[in-house]
Amino acid sequence: MKRVTRMLPALLALAAATACAAESVPAPQPGARAAAVAQSTTIPAPAPAAGAVAAPAKKAKLEIADITPMGEKTEKVGVGFPIIVTFDRDVKDKATVEALLDVEPEKPVEGAWRWVSPRKVIYRTKTYWKPYQKVLFTARLSELPGNEKTKNVSRRFAVGSQQISLVNTRNHTMKVYRNGKLAKKIAISAGKGGFVRNGVDVYLTTSGTHLTMGKKAVETMTSSWMGVTDPKDPRYYKEEIPWAVRISDSGEYVHQSAGYYQFLGRSNQSHGCVRATPAGAKWFYTIAQRGDVVKITGTKRKLQWNNGWSYWQLNWTQWKKGSALKP
């Protein structure tokens, strides 16, 4: 099944979309506006002298439009989580702005920013974050020349438990490790393959390091991604799928199998998603944090680094090349 989404420009370059697809556009994950996040205090300007004409206030040249993920009071995130900062306009001097973005974890780890568009920059660590800590992000945009009227913005993230899932599409299992220990082994069925578009078998699950991006207790999945909307078409489907945890922008989920339980743990029969047992899917949905790691192996289709939050597909040297700062 396949999700119908408004693909990001980078994803439009993909040879084809994948697997499961929902009927509706994915609900935007909560990201705070700059005005909603904790901000530093600024000293008010003195009032103009009597009879003087006040000069028009200067507008800020650059502000933050969105920060993902949410802060410590709203959610706990997984050890692979990225910090995604979107500005309200294109950034001309990326190096200067990047130098004003600080990340301070309680348990230090090397990290770097990568620009993915003129107004969006993403922070990823060299190795996974340590679990059970707070990470403080601060944007000192008031120090940008000509941007003194802007208030600095900060957000503190809460890292939860280390949850890393290993999906083997050849032996049809998903092993979920919490803090290094095997918490559960779940029988699964992955993409069966056999539907090629633009040279890509879109029925194959993508192999690589995915991150969980969001979840819905019930997701409506349809065949409209294939252009099939007529219920009389034998390829048509529209199903309500429980316990759906999204792991890519191209439509891949870990979710409860809609029947066909006889294939779980035995063969791959999905359109690209990872189907799981009812009990296993519900358990995984319940514990899932955005930024948890889901490593999938066993297929010939490689996950693209810009498909969702799949930034760990780039090695550390490749990732750092996206920074505007000199080494």
Automatic annotation (TrEMBL):
Pathway: Cell wall biogenesis; peptidoglycan biosynthesis. InterPro entries: Big_10, LD-transpeptidase, LD_TPept_cat_dom, Transpep_catalytic_dom. Residues 163-297 form the L,D-TPase catalytic domain. The active site is at residues 255, 273. Keywords: Acyltransferase, Cell shape, Cell wall biogenesis/degradation, Peptidoglycan synthesis, Signal, Transferase. The keyword Transferase applies. Residues 1-21 form the signal peptide. Gene3D superfamilies: 2.60.40.3710, L,D-transpeptidase catalytic domain-like (2.40.440.10). The keyword rRNA processing does not apply. Pfam families: Big_10, YkuD. PANTHER family: L,D-TRANSPEPTIDASE (PTHR30582), L,D-TRANSPEPTIDASE YCIB-RELATED (PTHR30582:SF2). This is L,D-TPase catalytic domain-containing protein. The lineage of its organism: Bacteria, Bacillati, Actinomycetota, Actinomycetes, Streptosporangiales.
